[in-house]
Design goal:
Elements lengths: L1 H33 L3 H14 L3 H13 L3 H14 L4 H13 L3 H14 L4 H19 L19 E7 L2 E6 L16
Antiparallel strand pairs: 1-2
């Protein structure tokens, strides 16, 4: 029985050492994070996470990716965060934001929906975020056709006109037309 107990002790000692190691890394990472050095904090948090996979470390990794504009990584770490802790509404919010950044509006909408479901009193915000996903999707489906430009023949001339301003009962043009062109009353045009 001695041998077994000895091995058990070794495993325990090994575990404590690795926990110590990752704790030191987390401490150092936290310092970097406080100093806004998100790049170095991110690397340290990742190393710590390899040893001890905890939710707080995951949250920090996600936050670092977000603050360093690493959108692809932000998305994949946020997905891991949800897998580890699927009741925290903030996790869905940051995942939704990452998906939006990466142009995955349908997925983002689902994440924002869950954010609304799991948080209290954030339903309006959740609906607003979902609506912004919809409008992004609509713009994707019809990128250019939001405005049509029609030339009104009556007003079109070969000269460059700069502005049409309402003035008394008519309109005033600012234009580079020569003055000789006396005001043409368009209404007298024979149809």
């Amino acid at each position: 029985g001695h041998m077994k107990r000895f091995l058990g002790m070794l495993t325990l000692v090994g575990f404590i050492c690795s926990a110590e190691l990752s704790y030191g890394q987390v401490e150092k990472a936290d310092q970097e994070f406080e100093q806004l050095s998100y790049f170095s904090a991110l690397e340290l948090y990742k190393k710590a996470f390899e040893q001890t996979k905890t939710v707080p470390i995951l949250q920090k990794i996600v936050e670092c990716c977000k603050r360093t504009n690493r959108y692809k990584e932000w998305e994949s770490w946020a997905a891991k965060l949800i897998a580890a802790d699927n009741k925290n509404p903030d996790n869905y919010l940051t995942y939704g934001d990452a998906l939006m950044r990466n142009g995955k509006y349908t997925d983002a909408k689902q994440a924002y929906n869950l954010y609304g479901r799991y948080s209290s009193g954030k339903l309006f915000e959740s609906q607003f975020l979902q609506a912004s996903c919809d409008s992004a999707l609509n713009q994707m489906n019809s990128p250019i056709t939001t405005a049509t430009v029609k030339t009104l023949d009556v007003l079109s001339t070969p000269y460059s006109d700069w502005g049409l301003t309402k003035y008394r009962n008519g309109f005033v043009f600012s234009s580079d037309r020569p003055w000789e062109q006396k005001t043409i009353d368009k209404n007298e045009k024979k149809l």
